[in-house]
């Protein structure tokens, strides 16, 4: 069974292929779907479903998509669904990190709680839809640390609860076991294994 992953984000594709290494998964680009789907949903789930439905409709194959983001409690859970565009359209990873640090400048250490959420949508050949959610709590560091994968800039700032290092300082195996995306894809993996 082949599954198309509706993403062009190389960091996400890398993580997902590691977690779901037992399955035949290709990116939407590899499947010939070059268009970007506008992420205009009000939630991670809506955006993930929109992308997965679009790729399923274009390819006639099982399709999946993830929408995820960072929610900072002291900032009313911003950036949320705007995580990739928080510093403006076309902002670089470094711009996003610097923008976050600027917004957090006056926030004391004990109030820097945040969480990452990932919603993964899966659409079957018959059009059945499934959602798998993952969430990890943590806090925002006062300065960047580690080296983030492409298009995962916030990893240099996010310290998961119970750890003293950022996602970017962890091995991919460590991160995939506890991350929001790792947890959501793990649920998806169990679902696929029981089909």
Quick one: overall form?
globular
Radius of gyration: 16 Å
Number of strands: 7
The stretches of 5 or more residues where confidence is low (pLDDT under 50) are none
Q: Total domains, how many?
A: 1
Strand content: 15-25%
Mean pLDDT across every amino acid position: 95
Class based on secondary structure composition and strand pairing? alpha/beta
How far from one another are the termini?
Answer: 11 Å
Largest sheet: 7 strands, mixed
CATH C-level name: Alpha Beta
- Can you tell me the CATH topology? Maf protein
The portion of residues assigned to helices is: 25-40%
H/E series, N to C?
A: EHEHEEHEEEHH
CATH architectural group: Alpha-Beta Complex
Number of helices: 5
Description:
It is built from five helices and seven strands. It has helices spanning 10-19, 44-59, 93-103, 172-178, 180-193; strands at 2-5, 24-27, 62-72, 78-79, 113-123, 129-140, 158-160. Strands 1, 2, 3, 4, 5, 6 and 7 form a seven-stranded mixed beta sheet that branches. A hairpin with a 5-residue loop joins β5 (113-123) and β6. The longest helix has 16 residues, at 44-59. The radius of gyration is 16 Å and the shape is globular. The mean pLDDT is 95.
